[in-house]
Structures are given as structure tokens and as C-alpha cells.
Specification:
The protein folds into three domains: 74 residues, Immunoglobulin-like (Sandwich), CATH 2.60.40.10; 78 residues, Immunoglobulins (Immunoglobulin-like), CATH 2.60.40; 89 residues, Immunoglobulin-like. The N and C termini lie far apart (96 Å). The strands form six sheets. Strands 2-7-6-5 form a four-stranded mixed sheet. Strands 9-14-13-12 form a four-stranded mixed sheet. By secondary structure, it is mainly β. 14% of the residues lie in helices and 44% in strands.
């Protein structure tokens, strides 16, 4: 009996020693050091057409045990704009023991410009009608079409009288850039609304300072009320439409109005307005 107890004590002691040695070895062998991420340039200049693959340009990760782990690098996040066109990109890299390294650097989009609005309908509204303004949209050079984010900050939809009413459009892209555009909505009688007038491919157009523009290329036919007609269907010659851009200063940034005029009788002319925005951006 005593021999059995001695044997158990010895077995316990040996087990404890083996367990202790194993724990020491495990702690010694455990990898708790993350990789090291480095960049060729702390500041990266890109085009707005660049992809996430371009954002990884020049980034490298090396681990003390695994060696080169650059292939594990992922984009962990992108900040809002620090300044217009400039963001912070966060990177992460992993080793075989799931240790994580992080790194951040500035990325500047050299050809960035703020979101731009468009309209597929003239800024004309029939008296006593209500619009949801879904013909307004916006494009962003980084996010693409962001029309779902367009807000009508103020409007006079459903106006009971004719006249000119303010409309303010607002849109924000995924990087926090807010763009606004103030417009004038023309409210007219039903008879005036249903007259034939020039139809355009877009009613809000942006051009860089000093650039020439072929305004006639935006003519696509005739609009009569809510109907879109070709010139042939309306029996109207495109050459009969005159364009007045006398209020536009192409050398100065600003929001201007261009009138497309159609003479429908000897003493009656209808017009369609284009909003022309001269900008310093390309």
C-alpha cells in the first residue's frame, strides 16, 4: 500500500514537471509578434478611375517568422475626405498565427471634383400638379450614380399659381462631400405646359472654364406636355430652333441660363431652359 502511494506521488511529480516544461516551451514558441507593413510612399496620388488594386500599390508586409506576407494585405477602411479629394486608407496584414498589423497612408485623387447633378426633364411644371422630382439625378466620379441620395431641400411642388419658384438640390457622396444647386422651377398653366418646345438630352450641363461647347448637340426633338417627339413626328426642323447663350460668361465659373427658342407661330415662341454650369474642374 505504501509502495503504491509512493508510486503515485512520483507519477504526479513527473507529470507536473512534464506539464511545466511543455507550458514553458509553448510560451516560448508562441508567435505574438505581428507583421510589419511598409509603403514606398507615404502619400499616394491616383486618378478617380483607379481601383482598389491601385490603392495597394507600393504596400508590403513582412513577418519575423513567415517572411513576406504581402499577399495577406487588405484594405481595412477608407475615411471621409480630409480635404477635397484626399482620404486616409487603412491597411491590415496577417501572419500564420493570425497576428494583425495595421497601417494608414494618405491617398489623393488628383482629378477629383464634387458630385454633379443632371435632369432628364425641363425645369417646367404644370400649375396645380405635384412632382416627385425623380427626374433629377447626380453622378459622382468615385461612387458613380448617386441619384438615390438626391434631396430636394426646398421646393414648391403642387403650387396653385403660375410663377417662378426656388428648388434647392442637395447630394452627399460616400466620402462626405456635400454639393448643392439652387434652381428656379417655372410653373405654368396647362395650356402653356402642353405647347411644343425644344427637348434636350440634359437640362443641367457642366463645362470647364474656357471650353467651347456644341449646344445644338443637346437638341433631341420636341417636347409637348409629357410627350417626347422626334423632329419628324412634330414636323419641326431642328434648324428652326435658335439658341441664346448671351448671358453665359465661359471664362468665369458660375451658374448660367441658356434658352432654346422655338417659333411655333408668327407671333408665338416657346423656350426651353438649360442650366449651364461653368466650373474650374475638368
Amino acid at each position: 500500500m505504501r509502495a503504491l502511494r509512493i508510486a503515485l506521488v512520483i507519477l504526479f511529480a513527473v507529470t507536473s514537471v512534464v506539464f511545466g516544461v511543455d507550458r514553458i516551451r509553448t510560451r516560448r514558441d508562441r508567435d505574438i509578434i505581428p507583421p510589419v507593413i511598409s509603403c514606398e510612399n507615404e502619400e499616394l496620388h491616383l486618378s478617380v478611375s483607379s481601383t482598389d488594386e491601385d490603392l495597394l500599390r507600393g504596400v508590403r508586409a513582412v513577418d519575423e517568422r513567415d517572411g513576406d506576407v504581402t499577399s495577406t494585405i487588405v484594405i481595412a477602411g477608407k475615411s471621409n475626405f480630409i480635404e477635397e479629394g484626399e482620404i486616409r486608407v487603412d491597411y491590415s496584414a496577417f501572419d500564420s498565427h493570425n497576428n494583425v498589423a495595421t497601417y494608414s497612408r494618405r491617398v489623393i485623387y488628383d482629378d477629383y471634383h464634387s458630385p454633379r447633378f443632371y435632369s432628364k426633364s425641363p425645369l417646367l411644371m404644370r400649375m396645380s400638379s405635384s412632382y416627385d422630382f425623380d427626374f433629377f439625378g447626380a453622378e459622382d466620379v468615385l461612387n458613380g450614380d448617386i441619384s438615390r441620395k438626391v434631396k430636394i431641400v426646398t421646393s414648391s411642388s403642387g403650387s396653385a399659381s403660375t410663377g417662378e419658384y426656388p428648388v434647392v438640390l442637395e447630394v452627399t457622396n460616400d466620402y462626405g462631400d456635400v454639393e448643392k444647386l439652387s434652381l428656379i422651377l417655372h410653373v405654368c398653366s396647362a395650356s402653356e405646359y402642353n405647347r411644343m418646345r425644344p427637348s434636350l438630352s440634359d437640362y443641367i450641363v457642366y463645362i470647364p472654364v474656357g471650353e467651347e461647347i456644341d449646344l445644338r448637340s443637346y437638341l433631341i426633338g420636341i417636347r409637348q406636355g409629357d410627350r417626347e417627339l422626334t423632329f419628324e413626328e412634330a414636323d419641326v426642323s431642328a434648324d428652326s430652333i435658335t439658341i441664346d447663350d448671351s448671358l453665359v460668361d465661359y471664362s468665369t465659373p458660375g451658374v448660367y441660363s441658356v434658352d432654346f427658342d422655338l417659333r411655333i407661330s408668327y407671333d408665338q415662341t416657346t423656350e426651353t431652359e438649360m442650366i449651364l454650369i461653368v466650373t474650374e474642374d475638368n
